[in-house]
Each structure stands twice: as structure tokens, then as C-alpha cells.
Amino acid sequence: MKLSVASAMIDAALAEATRLKVTVCITVVDAAAWPVAFARMDGAPLGVIDVSGKKAKTAVLFQMDTAAFAKIAHPDGVAYSLENTNGGLTSFGGGVLLKAADGAVAGAVGVSGATSAEDIDIARAAARVLSA
Amino acid sequence: MKLSVASAMIDAALAEATRLKVTVCITVVDAAAWPVAFARMDGAPLGVIDVSGKKAKTAVLFQMDTAAFAKIAHPDGVAYSLENTNGGLTSFGGGVLLKAADGAVAGAVGVSGATSAEDIDIARAAARVLSA
Amino acid sequence: MKLSVASAMIDAALAEATRLKVTVCITVVDAAAWPVAFARMDGAPLGVIDVSGKKAKTAVLFQMDTAAFAKIAHPDGVAYSLENTNGGLTSFGGGVLLKAADGAVAGAVGVSGATSAEDIDIARAAARVLSA
Amino acid sequence: MKLSVASAMIDAALAEATRLKVTVCITVVDAAAWPVAFARMDGAPLGVIDVSGKKAKTAVLFQMDTAAFAKIAHPDGVAYSLENTNGGLTSFGGGVLLKAADGAVAGAVGVSGATSAEDIDIARAAARVLSA
């Protein structure tokens, strides 16, 4: 995950958040869950800094969007308590897995600060940069 | 738990995982929950490294397989939140308790990366080394 | 610390690092030590991600550049072990305190990945954005 | 870092440790500091399990052997307190960086349990597997 790509994803996410009139944090991690770029919009609650990072981390560590992860880690899911591993993970939408053209995991983007549906929408706007 | 035994269990688990065409992580811990041997198969998601360790730890700390632990630590179980003790435990199958011929706890093996049923199958393949 | 300012500081740091032909991580935090923006240049060692953040945190928490903090927190300094507080701080150059025109603390920038002298130079290039 | 290579490195380390009549722990991590394989020899002190992991992590995160890292992180070194970053690092020998034929970082091996000189010797025996 090059910084130029991660920065373009951050910019795309900021544009989409501005369009939706919400304030969020955005974290982009590489395929091994290490941070590449991060931005906090003016006015975003301080608590969502960490949430955006955990969403990105969760998506890449288990190679699925966090909305899908939420189903298996739910008390009625097949892997209840999975969210307690790896230093704490997040079980709701806003973390989107990034794949390269050949299908390999390229990293993940995590967005937090708005509703879960909006966070997902913003994360997908960022992800489209990779496939453009 | 001797390293020679733990290594033989890892090899048995790898063989069973290969037979099932899945990629997993395997952790073997001793009767005091300290790691003896660990292996990550090529292609296993990074998140399951920690899960395999937590499954082994959970099994040996409460002297039961994690599939049994899941029933008591579930929100509807008799000891809900037990999974939050000891630095975080796992409440789904794939951690198998190991006992010596005389019934004493010998350690545990934790497997993660496939379905819970497959993880359990692989962990049992490893456990059979001890009773062979 | 507005995101627009923090982003401009990141850009200035990236330009200076490119001029020096080094690869670094840059973290900008606000006056309460919370991250605003972060970037990792391609090829920077993974270990310096955390170092850049700790440098920025150290500078803002004690309201001095980390090169100054290093003198008091050194084993021969007046406050040896101060570096072990606040979850771990850094005692070498590369964290630069940011002040507003009226002298109030505005945040800090932390740079890591090159020599300490280069890290300081890059952090100062970022800091000049604030006073421009 | 493939498991087959990491396992061969563990075996080489065990053979060298046996030759030296010492008992150690060996951890092999990939280029992003994630564990691939681990082994604890019978009789190794429990405390060195974590030390072997931290040595491998330190080497790969800063792209140098831990004996070299020790010089810069020493109280009189250029980056005192660097050992307090990244969740705690180790500033003495026994972590050896692994490079591929093209010079790219391939991972690291960490050995702990004997004297530092012996730990280094054992780690180098493991590293030779990669270049063989």
C-alpha cells in the first residue's frame, strides 16, 4: 500500500464525508495491518480516532468487511468473543477490506464518526480509488 | 509438555489441515498455559495467530475444550463475562484440552483459521498424538 | 489544530524528507495529544510508526521539544524515568512543539525514520507551516 | 516467510543449541513482524519465551540485529528510550534480521535462553538456512 494511494483514499473519504455533512476519522492500513495514513476531520469525537483504526485492523486481520465480521462475532454468531482477540476488534460496519486487481489483500480502510451506514459509504468511496 | 511431543502434535495438525485443504495456525501450550510450539500455515489470515493462542490458553485455564467453555461464557450461560477474564478468552470451538494417561492436565492445543468444526477436527488430530 | 493545517504540515514534512532523500513517518497531534493526521512514507521501517507518534505525544505532554526532554529524562538528568510515564515517551530529537501566534500550545509534530538531526529538520519544516 | 523455511530455521537453531548444550526459545517472524513459527526447548526458563519474540520483533521493526539496536537505544546512544516504543523492545543480542537474496527484509529470528553470544550464534545458524 503506497502512501500516494492511501492519501488519495483519504481525500476521497473526506470528499464523501463533506458531501454527507458528517465528520469522521479515516485510517488506511497495509496488508499486515500497519498504518499508512490517518486523518481526523474537525469536530469528530475523540473516541472515534481509535475506532477507525480498529475497524481497519479488524477488516484486514480477518480478510472481511467489519459488517460481515459483526455477524460471526455476535453473541449468536459462530465465533462469539472473536472481537476480544488481537487487542480488541470492532464488530460493526465501517471497516472495508481492500483487494488488488489480482484478488490479493492490499489493506483496509476504517471510517468512524457518523452512522454505520454512512461510515460504510465513506469507506467504500475511499476503496473505489484502489479499483479506479 | 516436551517440545518433541508438541512438535509431533503440530505436524499431525498440519497433516490434517492439508487433508482438509484449509490453512490454520496451531498453538500448543503446557499445563501452566505457557507456549511450547506454534506454526502458521502459508495463507492463514493474520488475525488467527492470536486466536489459536487464546483457544489453547482458554482450554487449559478452565480445563475444558473451548466448545464447552462457549456454553457457560455465552450471554445466556451460567458464567457470562468469564471470557473477559485472564486478558481475554475465546468462546468457540478449536481449543482442545490435553490429558496424560493418568488423567492429569498436560496442556492444550488451539487451532484457528478454518470453520469451527474443522478447527476442532484438526485440534483432535493433534491431541491423538498424546494418547498414541 | 485543524485538519487543513495538519495536512499542510504533513505535506511540508514529506517535501523536506524527499529533498533529504530519507523516508520517515510523520504524526501531528493537537494540544491535548490526540492525533490529527499521520503519514508513512514508502519504505520507512515499521518500527518508526510508533516512534513518530510518541515523539509528538512527548513534546505536547511536557510542552518542549523531545531533544530538550531527552536532557531531563536521561539517567544523568534531573527527571530520570520521566520517559516511563504516560505509557512510554521518547527521549531523543524529532518531536517539535507547535505554538500559536499568541504563544499558546497548538500541538506537536513527531518525525522518525532518519537521523535525529534530519528528523528534527523535517519536523521544523512542518512547524514553519503554522507560523507562515 | 513460508512456514517450510521458518520450520527449517527452527530445526537449525535447535541443532546448534543442542551442540552448545544450552536450552533456548526460538521465534521466527515475517517482514511485518507477525509470528510464523516458535519453539521452546525443554528446560528453558519461562521468561525467555517473550524475550525471543521481542528480539525477533525488534530486529525486523528497525531492520537491524538487536546487538546493533542495543548501541543506539543505550542511555548513551543516539536514541535512548527507543526500546520503550512498539510495546517494548529488547536492547541486547539474539535477534537477527533476515534478508532475501535481493536484499529485501524477509523477517527475523529471535533466540533467548543462553548467553547473548550463544543466542546470537544460534540465531545465525538459523539465518544460514535462508541463504543456503
UniProtKB/TrEMBL annotation, chains A, B, C, D:
Highest taxon of the lineage? Bacteria
- Specify the signal sequence span: none
Keyword terms of this UniProt record: Plasmid
- UniProt KW Transferase keyword: no
Annotated PANTHER family: PROTEIN GLCG, SLR1406 PROTEIN
By what name is this protein known? Heme-binding protein
Task: State the organism named in the record.
Answer: Komagataeibacter saccharivorans
